[in-house]
Amino acid sequence: MDRAMTFHGIDRLVALIAAIVCFSVAVAGWGMRGDAGVFPIIVGGLGLLACVWLALTCRRAEGASQRPAPSDRQRLGLWCLGVVALLVLIEPVGTFIVLPLFLIFNLKLLARLSWRTTLLLAVGFTLGIYLVFARLLAVPLPAGWLAI
Amino acid sequence: MDILLTALANVVTPTALLTLVLGTLAGILIGALPGLSSTMGVALCIPITFNMPPDLALILLGAVYVSSVYGGSVTAILLRTPGTDASIATALDGYPMAAAGRGGEAIGMATLASLFGGLVSVIVLLAIAPPLSKVALAFGPQEYTWLAIFGLVTIVGVVSERPVKGVLSAALGLILATVGLDAFTGEQRFTFGQGELFDGVPLLPVLIGLFSVSQAFNLCIPRDGGVLSGEAQRMQGRSLPYWADLKRCLRTLCRSSVIGSVVGILPGAGTSIAAFISYNEARRHSSHPETFGKGEIEGVAASEAANNAVTGGTLIPTLTLGIPGNAVTAVFVGGLTIHGMIPGPSLFTQHAESTYTLIVSLLFANLMFAVLGLWLCRYMVKVTRVPGAVLGPMILLFSLVGTYALRNEMFDVWLTMACGLMGYFMERWRYPAAPLVIALILGPILEVNFRRAMQISQWDLTTFFTRPLSLALCLLVVLALVIPLWRRWRQRQCAVA
C-alpha cells in the first residue's frame, strides 16, 4: 500500500486523516454537557495544530523523498489472511483447534519448516497455552466445537 | 526498616524465588533476541500475572524488566547485533574484544557492570522514592496538571527525530484518553454505544497491541525478519575479567551508574541515551581514548553499567508521582493498575508492602541475572538463530490469548489486533508509539486535575501560577520546551558556521 508513496506523501495523508479525526473530536466536544467537552476541544485543537505543522514541514524533512522499505506483498497477504481467519474462527471453532492450525499455516508457509518440526512446535505451543492459561490461570478460553 | 524486612521476607520465599528465576530467564532471553524489547517482554507477562498475588506479579515484572536490559549485551558482544537498543554502545567495544578471542572477558565485564549499575540504581530508588512520595503528598491538582504536561513534553521531545510526529502521536493518545464516561458529568464520550468503552479505552490491549503484536508483524512479514546474519564469535578466554581491569574500571562504573540513574529519572530519556553519554564520558576521562572502539573493556563497562542503572531511575517518577517516563514504565503502570495499585504517592502508604517488595526484588533480580547470565550466555547465541517467522506467530498468539485472559472479552482481542496493525504502520512510517501510550496514561490525570483545579479556582487560570510548587513545575515545563529548541538552534548555527 505504501510502496508507491514517499515519506512526505505518507505524512500528508496521515496529517489529513488525523486532522479530520481531531476536528470531529473538537466539534463533538463543543456539544457536550457542562465542562465535559473542554478537554476534547483542547486535545482536538492540539491535534489540529500538529497536523498543520506536519503538513507544512513534511516536504522539508530529512529523507522526505525516500520510500519505506518494500515489504513482501505475498508474505503480508498470507500473514493477514491467517490473522483474520484466526480472529473470525477463534470463538465459533474454539481456541485449541484454531491455534495449532494458525501455527501450522504460518510455520509451513512463512517459516518453511519441515512437517515434523511444524507439527511438533504447533502441538507443543498449544499445549503450553492450555497449561498456562486454561489450567494454571483458569481462563475460560473460547471452547467452540470442543465444548460439545 | 520493618517494612524492608517484611519485603525481604516476601522475596525469599520459595515461590517468590522461583518466580524471580523464571522472570530473569525470560527477561534475558527476550533481551537477547533482536526484535523483542523490554517493553514487549513486560507487556507479554502482564496477562500471566493477572491471577497472581500482587507481590509475585510485581516480582515477575521487575525481573523481566531488569534482566531484559542486560540480555541485549550478549548478542551485542558475540554477534555485533544488540538485542535491545540499550546495548548498541556495548557492541562498539564488545564485538572487537570477542573477535580478538576475549569474548568471555567482555561478557564477564558486561555482567558485572550491569550488576553494579543495577544495584546502584536500586539503592538510588530506595533512597529517593520514599521521601519524594512524601513531597508529592503536598501536590494539589495544579501541580499534577503541570507534572502531566511535563511528562508529555519531555517524551515528545526525545523519542522522535521530528517532534511534530511525537506531538501528533501524543494528541492521538490524549484523544483516546477522552473515550468513556466523563468522571464529572457522566456524559458518554466517543463510546459509540459500546459498553466495553464505558470505562475508557482499556490500557493493556493498547499496550500489548502496540508493543507486542506489531513486533509479531515485523518478525513475520520480512523474509529474513529477526534472523541474525552476523558472524558469531565463540565465547573464548576466561569468563570473568581480570582483577586489574576491574580496578581500572571502578571509576567508570561509579560514574556510569550515577549517569544512568539520573538519566532514568528524566522522563523520555532511555537506556540507549544513558549508555552513549556514559560511553563518551568514559572515553573523555580515559588516559588512552584511542583504544575505544577497538576492544576497550572500559567501554563495555561504561555502557552496561549505565543502561542497567536506568532501570531503577525510571521507576522513581513512575512509582512516586504516577508519571511514566518511557514506554516500559508505561507498561509497568498497566501491570500495577490491574492489581489495584494506582501509581503515585499513595503507593508508599496504601500498598507499602508490595511496593517495597518490588524494590527489594529488583536487588535480587540483579543478582540473579548476573549468576544466570554468566552461566547461560554461551547457549543464548544459539537461540537467537531462531527465525522471526517462527517466533512471530507465537508472540501473536500469546499476546491475543493473554489479552483475552484479562477480561474474557473478544472486544479486547480485536482492539489489540487493531493497535498491533497501527503500531506496525507507525513504526514503518516513523511515528513513535511511546508518546501515544504515555498520553493515554497521563490523559486522565491531566484532565481530572485540570478540571478540578479550574472548578476550585472558579475558572481562574492564574491558579496554575500562584502556588510556589506549581510555579516551579511550570518553569520546569518551560525549560523542557526551551532546551531542545535552543540545542537545535545551536546545532544549526554550528552547521552554518
- Helix and strand content put the structural class of chain B at mainly alpha
The assigned structural class of chain A equals mainly alpha
**Count the strands of chain B?**
2
List SSEs of chain A in N-to-C order: HHHHH
Helical segment tally of chain A? 5
The N- to C-terminal Cα distance of chain A equals: 43 Å
* Shape, per Cα inertia axes of chain A: flat
Largest interface: A-B, 67 and 57 residues
Total helical elements of chain B: 20
Helix coverage percent of chain B: over 70%
Strand content of chain A: under 5%
In angstroms, what is the radius of gyration of chain A? 23 Å
Largest sheet of chain B: 2 strands, antiparallel
The proportion of residues in beta strands of chain B is: under 5%
Mean pLDDT of chain B: 87
User: Widest sheet of chain B: strand order?
Assistant: 1-2
Mean pLDDT of chain A: 90
Folded structure, characterized:
The complex is a heterodimer of chains A (148) and B (497). Chain A has 148 residues and is an all-alpha fold. Chain A folds into two domains: 7-57; 73-147, no CATH class. Helices cover 69% and strands 0% of the residues of chain A. Chain A is built from five helices and no strands. In chain A, helix 1 (7-30) runs antiparallel to helix 2. The radius of gyration of chain A is 23 Å and the shape is flat. The mean pLDDT of chain A is 90. Chain B has helices at 2-11, 14-32, 38-49, 54-79, 88-99, 103-136, 141-159, 163-177, 203-220, 243-265, 271-285, 297-321, 327-337, 347-350, 352-383, 388-407, 410-428, 434-456, 463-466, 468-496, and strands spanning 180-181, 188-189. Chain B has one domain (2-496). In chain B, strands 1-2 form a two-stranded antiparallel ribbon. Chain B is mostly helical. Chain B contains 20 helices and two strands. In chain B, helix 3 packs parallel to helix 13, helix 4 packs antiparallel against helix 13 (327-337) and helix 4 (54-79) runs parallel beside helix 15. Classes of the chains: A mainly alpha (148), B mainly alpha (497). Chains A and B meet through helix 1, helix 2, helix 3, helix 4 and helix 5 of A and helix 8, helix 16, helix 17 and helix 18 of B. Chain A: Pfam families: TctB (PF07331). Chain A: This is Tripartite tricarboxylate transporter TctB family protein.
